[in-house]
Amino acid sequence: MQEARYIGGVTTNLILITLLVKLGVVASVASVLARVTTFRRLFFAEKRTPRQTLALLAFIVVPLALGVWVRIRVPNFLAADVSFEASILLGLLLGPAWAMLGGLALGFPALLHHEYLAMPFDAVVGLAAGSLGRFVGKEEIWSFTPFIDLSLYRWVRRILSRPRTDRQFVMLFLIVAAEMCHDWLAREFPHRLFALLAGPLWLQAMVWLSAPIVVGIALKVWNALRIELKLEEQKRLLLEARLDALQRQINPHFLFNTLNSIASLVRMKPELAREMTVKLANILRALLKDHDTYVALRDELSFTDDYLDIEVVRFGADKLRVEKEIDPRTLGVMVPSILLQPLIENSIKHGLEPRIHGGTVTLRSKMEGDRVRIEVADDGVGMGNRPQPGIRREGAGIGMKNVQERLEVLYGDEAHFNVVSNPGRGTLVSIEFPANLPEGI
């Protein structure tokens, strides 16, 4: 029975079943590895240290070497041994040197079973696959398809339209040729090298063609993960770029309005203009300094104090009053930087400035479970004429829209932004978002 495994004693049905199960084994191992965070980090790292590469090699080799041991110990479970295809994968993805080391490790269980050609053969296959990988390039490797009929069809079309060397077909041809060499050696040296050997030529041809399919399935599984990670990275970069653009949109808007305030005082009250200029310098220094997306609420309040001091000087302490109802528990909560200033500016410009006697801006913050609620209220004229009181709006002006978009980018559906304005009675802007930073920040 042992001899039947190597030379012709294996039934046709067993070989067909083995080929099908082998596809499932490779797909399962590749999928399980793709779910391991450490494997993903090592596998898709742009640069790896030798120690990291060795760890990555262990992730791939250990379960597949166990499969060789299972093939030896469990009768007729030949599909567990994919050491030949694994050596090709290691060569294509890790290079010839590491593939040779992996091939030796994959062949070690077979060596214990007196299959003395397994280790040198797998090492040579890894070396050859590594050289092939350097020739075809990474993108060609990732785009390699296990669907042989499509590869042949695509190759014929390319050759007919523009004769040239198709590296995809070169990979396909060389993997099949290596499998044919594998089978020939197994026939010449029975019991020294494992291979699936069939009697009918059509069945043996299926064995030869299964090798590139097995390699292609593993590549497809990992390439799908590679594309997913690339899309996530692009999404992250896009969000960062959008946040940066929104952040820069605030600064010139605020600067323009503040300079207008200072210009109105230069002739009549130069000392106050000088004081406002100093405070503006403090604000610009904070804006131009590199800062994080999030700051503690106490720092955000300190930043808005300078702006409010400027506006109080501009309007007069009797016309612009500022009240704060700040929950001490919220002072350490991290909030988006430059969050309050646009809202305060909106209250003053659209609510209190049109009012002859001015009014009051009130800042409130409080904890509601694991969420923080921040409110900016004024008792001004409200935001335009409305047929009904209490109507909700998404925001007004550049600053309001900017804050709303930033909250959407940073927190998604977890953030709530509401504006309630009553003509002649004032406007209330309320923001609510998680007190803890979003994951990945």
Write a structural description.
- The structure is a single chain.
- With 441 residues, this protein is of the alpha+beta class.
- It starts with 11 loop residues before the first helix and ends in a 7-residue tail after the last strand.
- It is elongated and about 105 Å long.
- The longest helix is centred in the middle third of the chain and has 63 residues, at 201-263.
- The relative contact order is 0.07.
- The strands form two sheets. It has a six-stranded mixed β-sheet, covered by helices on one side. A two-stranded antiparallel sheet has the order 1-3.
- It is built from 14 helices and eight strands.
- Helix 3 (50-73) packs antiparallel against helix 4 (83-94).
Rg result? 35 Å
Helix percentage range: 55-70%
Helix/sheet category: alpha+beta
Question: Total strand count, please?
Answer: 8
Largest sheet: 6 strands, mixed
Order of helices and strands: HHHHHHHHHHHEHEEHEEEHEE
Number of helices: 14
Count of structural domains: 2
Estimate what percentage of residues fall within beta strands. Answer: 5-15%
**N-to-C span:** 60 Å
Shape: elongated
Strand order of the largest sheet: 2-4-5-8-7-6
User: Residue ranges: pLDDT <50 for 5 or more in a row?
Assistant: 1-9, 385-396
Could you report the average pLDDT, rounded to the nearest whole number?
A: 82
